[in-house]
Design a protein that fits this description.
Blueprint (H helix, E strand, L loop, with lengths): L1 H9 L3 H67 L2 H14 L1 H11 L4 H32 L15 H4 L3 H11 L3 H53 L4 H20 L10 H21 L4 H4 L9 H10 L6 E7 L2 H8 L1 H18 L5 E6 L2 E6 L7 H15 L11 E7 L6 H17 L4 E4 L1
Parallel strand pairs: 4-5
Antiparallel strand pairs: 1-3, 1-4, 2-3
Helix pairs in contact: 2-3, 2-4, 2-5, 2-8, 2-10, 4-5, 5-7, 5-8, 8-9, 8-10, 13-14, 14-15
């Protein structure tokens, strides 16, 4: 009586059904191995495609980062005359050589010919821009009286007119050469070529991901057939299969319908299957993230919206970030005088101008109406003069009416992060600084 009750509580022993299920188990195991092998192959293909896309995209951005680094150091050298920035410039250009390494890496990728061509154009434009930067640096060297300077500059000759300038005028001319419209036009050409390279990479990755995901879908259908066969094959073992097979399978089907990951429960084989599916599900979701661009970006200007800003603030290192709160001066007057369509075009121009003057890895956000925020990342307090120059250049470009839009300007409140300041504190301080700018006549900036 005790044995019967124990057997009832424990269910039918696997030993009892072992003989009857041995043949079916061998067949099911073979099918499972076959399916998981092909699933792993498909997953590896998706992973390899994603890794190549990430690596090549990083290479393209490294070129722009290197170009921006050169620009930052030549601009700071022309403003301060500090030899450190001159040394930084030539160390990057001729020792680190990130630009050249980026192009070389791109050339080794598969199906990247067009992207490589665009990135090579960006490198050529960056090298061409160095001639202008060399001339500006030599002006500073002459003005400061330096006698020891890199050999690359020794072949550069100043014009007789520029050689005759006073030290102060040479410094002023050097600053103008690396801050004027022509200089930024050449920088924009480099960015344009880099973006074209990234577009080619994204198109290539999209096509390859689509093929890989189609193949994975077929393999998943095959896996579902195997699961169904397993359920039918052990149907008579209701209690046992409900614990080890049926319940996990039914639960997995419901999760698939709900478009969510499969819980890793049940038999070991099913847990392995769930882990494989969840990995593919994660890759699939990552591929869909590209479609979520509109959720974090402003439809009108293409800048990050408030949701995107909140996400950035939660993920950035604020201790090395400048938060620049910006208002467009007299924007209501523009709307009232020229109409809302012209006002929209002015907002688009503001974002374009901000992106053109800040680095490619800085973030431009539209918080609503005519209020914007720029997050200048990886920045130290030493860059205050550089930010002043950028704001001045931005206002100079916004005052240009050759594009048919009314002249405008911006007011800015600028604060640098620190370990003691959270995001709310930074926003409050930036708002106070912006208020000070407006109180003193707008069209300018105030640092906290």
């Amino acid at each position: 009586m005790m044995d019967t009750e124990q057997r009832k509580n424990d269910g039918v022993s696997l030993r009892t059904i072992h003989i009857s299920l041995i043949i079916g188990a061998v067949i099911m195991a073979a099918l499972m191995i076959y399916a998981t092998y092909h699933m792993s192959t498909g997953f590896s293909r998706v992973t390899d495609t994603s890794e190549q896309q990430i690596e090549l995209s990083k290479a393209a951005r490294d070129l722009m980062d290197a170009s921006d680094y050169l620009t930052e150091n030549v601009q700071r050298f022309t403003i301060h005359g500090d030899r450190r920035f001159l040394d930084n410039y030539f160390t990057e250009a001729f020792e680190n050589r990130r630009r050249e390494e980026s192009v070389a890496l791109m050339s080794k990728g598969s199906h990247t010919e067009e992207a490589h061509h665009k990135l090579q154009d960006a490198l050529d434009a960056s090298i061409s821009l160095m001639e202008r930067e060399y001339y500006a640096m030599l002006l500073v060297i002459r003005a400061m009286g330096y006698t020891d300077y890199p050999e690359q500059l020794q072949s550069v000759e100043l014009s007789a007119e520029d050689e005759a300038l006073s030290a102060e005028d040479k410094m002023k001319l050097a600053v103008d050469l690396v801050h004027d419209d022509e200089y930024y036009a050449q920088k924009n050409q480099i960015r344009s070529n880099m973006r074209a390279s990234l577009d080619e990479l994204e198109k290539m990755a999209y096509d390859e991901d689509a093929d890989a995901l189609t193949a994975l879908g077929k393999e998943m259908n095959f896996v579902r057939v195997i699961i169904l066969l397993q359920t039918v094959g052990i149907f008579f073992m209701v209690w046992l299969t409900s614990r080890l097979g049926i319940h996990p399978v039914l639960n997995a089907v419901e999760r698939i319908k709900e478009d969510s990951p499969i819980p890793e429960i049940g038999a070991n084989e099913f847990r392995y299957l769930a882990r494989t599916y969840n990995k593919m599900y994660e890759v699939y979701k990552n591929s869909l993230e590209r479609l979520n661009f509109k959720a974090s970006h402003d439809d009108l200007t293409g800048a990050y919206n408030r949701a995107g800003f909140d996400l950035l603030m939660s993920s950035l290192d604020l201790t090395s970030t400048y938060l620049i709160l910006i208002d467009v001066d007299n924007f209501k007057t523009v709307n009232d005088t020229y109409g809302h369509e012209a006002g929209d075009q002015v907002l688009i121009k503001v974002v374009k101008t901000l992106k053109g003057n800040f680095r490619s890895d800085d973030y431009v956000c539209r918080m609503g109406g005519d209020e914007f925020i720029v997050l200048a990342v990886h920045a130290t307090s030493m860059q205050q003069h550089l930010l002043e120059t950028k704001i001045t250049q931005i206002n100079r470009e916004l005052a240009d009416t050759q594009d048919g839009l009314p002249a405008t300007s911006i007011s800015a409140g600028i604060v640098h992060g620190s370990p003691e300041k959270d995001s709310d504190t930074l926003m409050r301080e930036a708002d106070k600084a912006l208020y000070e700018t407006k109180k003193h006549g707008k069209r300018g900036y105030t640092f906290v």
